[in-house]
Amino acid sequence: MEPIIRVEQLRKQYKNSKRPAVDGISFEVGRGEFFAFLGPNGAGKTTTISILTTTLSKSEGTVMIAGYDVEKEAAKVRRNVGIIFQNPSLDLDLTAEENIRLHVSIYGVYAYRPFYSMMPKEYKQRIEELAAIVGIHDNLFKKVKGFSGGMKRKLEIMRSLMHKPQILFLDEPTQGLDASARQSLWAYLQKIRKEENITIFLTTHYLEEAEEADRVCMITHGKVAVLGTPEEIKHKLLGDKSMLIDAGDRKALRAELEELQVSFTEEEQCFRVRFQDKTPQSLVARLQTPLSRMEVHQQTLEEAYLSLVQQSQNDESRKGAV
């Protein structure tokens, strides 16, 4: 199946810049995929997204969105994408429905009418359907200035879906929301993704949100540093998983680990044992020595990301020293 996003050797060089902001990156995103695009400030992340959403021109390369070229067929690309920006872009003095009515008229989906009652039946059905999904049905005709941060984000999601886009670009969608609101918002996003079969393209500084992605692309210094599933990336950047174990008879436990040819290091008050399976259950089941301690360290995407950033900084320091 043709990927819904295809980026080949994308390059962007700003005037008066010594090196490209984006330096020949390539990746593909499948239809219906949840794809996370991560990178530190200055990595080229914002530049890439701006090109993908037609708000910035590229210097070189090919970018196809939903089968359309971002530069030759920009209008068709925009009709197939929904964008939720980092900063809210709602008119607080309008009602939720008025914000949406203005948006769809700008997109050319429906001609503007001064009153909701004058809008076509299809518009009303779509707005009712989406309001029910995101949970703001009872607030459709209330002014946005009274909405919480979470409700505003839900309204932006709803607004971005009115023209039935194939791809939803989320740029820091939960920034400024508390933990409860973030969790609620993601529940609605996953529900929408399933019901509307939408591809999600996410950028976020909340790395735990990217843990649920099908695949993750991390970039540094304008280049793709690593691309794969969250588990693949964690293994590549952090190595094997590990657990801490100990026993009253440490000598016997050490001998048993050596006999089983398990990879381990002896720390001050325990053994750090590395494993590659999803869980350490099969390894623990083979141990005969009674354990007095067992702690499994769950690797996170945030740890992998920080490892990559540190590695990138070290590389830059070495270049500067040469």
TrEMBL record:
It comes from the Bacteria. It holds the Pfam family ABC_tran. Residues 5-246 form the ABC transporter domain. Coiled coil: none annotated. Keywords: ATP-binding, Nucleotide-binding, Transport. PROSITE patterns: ABC_TRANSPORTER_2 (PS50893). GO terms for molecular function: ATP binding; ATP hydrolysis activity. PANTHER family: ABC TRANSPORTER ATP-BINDING PROTEIN, ABC TRANSPORTER ATP-BINDING PROTEIN NATA. Belongs to the ABC transporter superfamily. This is ABC transporter ATP-binding protein. It comes from Paenibacillus rhizosphaerae.
